[in-house]
Amino acid sequence: MSDTNLLASVIDLHIRFGDQTVVEGVSFDIAPGECLALVGESGSGKTITSRALLGLVPGGASVTAAQLDVAGSDVRVFDEREWQGFRGRQVGLVAQDALVSLDPLRTIGREVGEVLRVHSRREKAPLSRAALAEAVEAELAHVAIPEPRERARQHAHELSGGLRQRALIASATIARPRLLIADEPTTALDLGVQAQVLDLLDRLKREGTGLLLISHDLAVVARIADRVAVMRGGRIVETGDVDTVLSAPEHPYTQSLLAAIPSLHTKGARLSAAPPLQLAPPAAAIDTSRTVLSVRGVSQSFAQPGGRRLQAVDDVSFELTAGRTLGIVGESGSGKTTLGRIIMGFQKPESGEVLLEDAPWSTLPEHRRRERRHTIQAVYQDPLSSFDPRRTGGAILREALALSGVPRAERGARAEELAEQVGLAPELLERRPLTLSGGQRQRIAIARALSRSPQVLLCDEPVSALDVSIQAQVLDVFSDIQEQLGLAMVFISHDLGVVNHVSDDVLVMRNGVVVERGPSAAVFANPQHPYTQSLLSALSPSITSTPGALS
Fold it and tell me: Are 524 and 264 spatial neighbours (Cβ–Cβ below 8 Å)?
């Protein structure tokens, strides 16, 4: 008999693909107005567990449970037709990437209204066009989207990341489901937008909606969850109220996840259990006083509709010496990525200049820059988008080595050396990018950058989409290669905890302007500008907590 006081009651859930068990013996419940967080790394089973509550487990899977009740219904007996009438009305889904999840060819109004339109027809009470438009505008306003009538006419690409995510939440809530599943709803969003989305989810929870939050980000969990269940290998290894689990974890796996979070207390320390890399030392001693990158008064604007211009970067200057890391932080639209493109020579600034090793860079024609591109290399957020999916990791590295002039006969051995340098098992070089984990792909991207023997490495959100333990491993790789090779690094990120951990100095950008700069420890410990203060106030406790605990 279903407990109508619970929005989810799961007892002894098993999910199998043939002989492989991916979820084993999972049990939990969710009450109205309560948020349960399922946390764990990729492959832990948290997402497929949530899909069992939606009837969206992939074909070929076997799902069994002693009890699997959602919103008072035993969904074990549902056929697809019953699921279609249930999803949206009783349980909704907010996915990770709104730009991918929202149809680029439909307006926001049509996208948000689709669930309500389909259910009203199914229930033999179709809404008029005017009534549907009114309901959509009301729901957009309900999720705090300004000017809802105008936004309803726009497409996903015309909205900011925060507005897109709110529109995605509106499409999940417009039919007033009692249970909402949010699967990584803030991954890769900057702090301000993340705070807005979490505030919205928290408000829905206070209104009585049950919330199942899927996340690998324990800082997000600390902000919104009431209870947490930690998954590993398809099992729940620890569960309890959020304050107890995150401040005094009992299971070693939970303890390791918390220890891997960058904070004010982890600067200079290793975040992962992996031993330090052993790299070949540079041919000459590192001169840490040598300036390798100079940015002088750089500005860049872009044309906007109506003849206006957006000032993306406004008179930015800094110098970077060998062996040091400069962190650049700011929200979406602050200009940090445009500045990165100018530094790389992919965009010529309207005014100012960039020098590499005291020689002109931004003012050179491209054919002259090409001769020196080995001097500065980049690692981006999603290496998969820059890899040929048909080529193995080894082929990707051998191609980069060919560009560096390494003889063909030496490329195979050199590729294996590069793999070992970034902590990647050489046998993984025989696999294609799609068969590798996010951390393995990012290590290949780092190895490819190192193959050119650069003096400067630009990293643009290189760990923002990685699980916390994989992020820790990659950050340790960056630390090792800098310490041993003397690279100068520019580290662009919206994650202040990560920037504080890796950076010697920091620039805080807002609307294209540097509003604060200085040694990272000083800036984060005592921010002077109101904008920096607001960024720090938006942080979950992870950046300021004691090691291994979220307070």
Answer: yes
Segment 368-417, tens digit of pLDDT: 998 899 999 999 877 777 888 899 999 999 999 998 889 999 999 999 99
Q: What band does 132 get if pLDDT is binned at 50, 70 and 90? A: very high
CA 48 to CA 70: how far, in whole Å? 16
Amino acid, single-letter form, for residue 455: Q
Q: Give the strand pairing for 235-241 and 227-232.
A: antiparallel
CA 186: distance to chain centroid? 7
What the block records as the tokens of 418 is 């590069």
Cα distance between residue 188 and residue 464, in whole Å: 5
pTM for the whole thing? Answer: 0.79
Q: How far is CA 43 from CA 47, 170, 181, in A?
A: 9, 28, 18
CA–CA distance, 339 with 349 (Å, rounded to integer): 9
Tokens of 434: 């799609």
pLDDT for res 111 = 92
Q: With the C-alpha atoms ordered 299, 302, 308, 311, is the resulting torsion angle positive or negative?
A: negative
Query: pLDDT tens for residues 153-169?
Result: 999 888 877 788 888 88
Average pLDDT over residues 295-301: 97
Alpha carbons 409 and 414: distance in angstroms, whole number? 10
Average pLDDT, the chain: 88
Nearest to 114 by CA among 174, 51, 179: 174
What is the pairing mode between strands 456-460 and 376-380? parallel
Which tokens is 428 given? 């993984």
**Under a CB-based contact definition with an 8 Å cutoff, are residues 225 and 35 in contact?**
yes
383 Cβ partners below 8 Å, 6+ apart? 433, 441, 442, 444, 445
In order, the DSSP letters of 161-226 are HHHHHHHHHHHHHTT--SEEEEESTTTT--HHHHHHHHHHHHHHHHTT-EEEEEES-HHHHHHH-S
